[in-house]
Amino acid sequence: MKILLATQKPFAASAVAGIREIAEGAGHEVVLLEKYAEQSDLVAAVADADAMIIRSDKVTAEVLDAAKKLKIVVRAGAGYDNVDLAAATAHGVVVMNTPGQNSNAVAELALAMMIFMARNQFTPATGSELLGKRLGVQAYGNVGRLVGQKAKALGMEISALDPFLTDEQISSAGADPVHSVEELYSTSDYLSIHIPALPSTIGSIGYDLITKMPKGATLVNTARKEVIDEAGLEKALEERPDLKYVTDVAPDNLAVLKEKFGLRVFATPKKMGAQTSEANVNAGLAAARQIVGFFATGCTRFQVNK
Ligand code: 3PG
């Protein structure tokens, strides 16, 4: 089978080598499409692929229409909002993710971002410490829990909101359970977002929630830019000069935010949460193994379009 490894943002060489070893060891061929300039490059490359490994690459209906032989797409990572699931299902294509495999990298970045903002982006102005501050974690899944555990080791108090977990599950994973998003925002000195981009979450974090945050609070977004109502964020930062926003997913209005709010806002130049060689190897090799297993035994564990 031909496996297309399509990564606009390439994996570390060690991950590519590992993917090749697993796939070729099982008798498959790996074709590499990295750093492609246009979506049409992906559409062309997928024409004769039986399987595809992607990152945040956009698997649209157009891509799926062009992929006449495609049977499986594995998103090497957690969020699969970049895949048109309905179109994939209509084409009989199985879609999987690799949950948990890049979580530590994202969690470490979230922590780093908190310290970076607490220390005024490493400028000499007097900063503050994380010790004793309360961190609210919005969604206590693979990444959220790691952020909570690491923050606890730094002496922070942890609150978590997760509608899919019981209070007991949240407590036993080290956080104080919170039952509403309003309560979470109004009690958190740092708020780390880990919700997926869904119709119900897109634009859900805006002026009303952000202005509920306590004095001097920092909002940390390593999830998806779509969950933020950007106009509401701008208005909140305008009215509350004590608030800060740090994000791994640059908002569309970043230039305006930077101009208006200076060191109170920071965005990475390119999404880098999962961009460590360890995360690339973990997610990439898991994706390769899932494809090999799918073709060998029909295993559909981790399928997200059932
Ligand atoms: C994910 O959903 O796994 C992360 O956002 C990482 O995305 P990336 O593979 O494009 O860096």
How are the SSEs ordered, and which strands pair?
Blueprint: E1 2-7, H1 13-25, E2 29-34, H2 39-45, E3 51-54, H3 61-66, E4 72-75, H4 85-90, E5 94-97, H5 103-118, E6 134-138, H6 142-153, E7 157-161, H7 167-172, E8 176-177, H8 181-187, E9 190-193, H9 207-210, E10 218-221, H10 230-239, E11 244-247, H11 254-261, E12 265-267, H12 277-297
Parallel strand pairs: 1-2, 1-3, 3-4, 4-5, 6-7, 6-9, 7-8, 9-10, 10-11, 11-12
Helix pairs in contact: 1-12, 5-6
The structure holds 3-phosphoglyceric acid.
The site of 3-phosphoglyceric acid has 11 residues, from loops.
- Unreliable stretches (pLDDT < 50, length at least 5) are none
What kind of sheet is the major sheet? 7 strands, parallel
Structural class estimated from helices and strands: alpha/beta
Please state the overall shape, judged from the principal axes of the Cα atoms.
elongated
Order of helices and strands: EHEHEHEHEHEHEHEHEHEHEHEH
CATH hierarchy class name of the largest domain: Alpha Beta
Rounded to an integer in angstroms, the radius of gyration calculated over CA atoms is 20 Å
Bound molecules: 3-phosphoglyceric acid
Give the count of structural domains: 2
The chain-level mean pLDDT equals: 98
* Number of helices, where a helix is a run of at least 4 consecutive DSSP H or I residues: 12
Extended strand count: 12
Helix content: 25-40%
Distance between termini? Answer: 23 Å
Tell me the β content: 15-25%
Write out the strand line-up for the largest beta sheet, numbering strands in chain order: 8-7-6-9-10-11-12
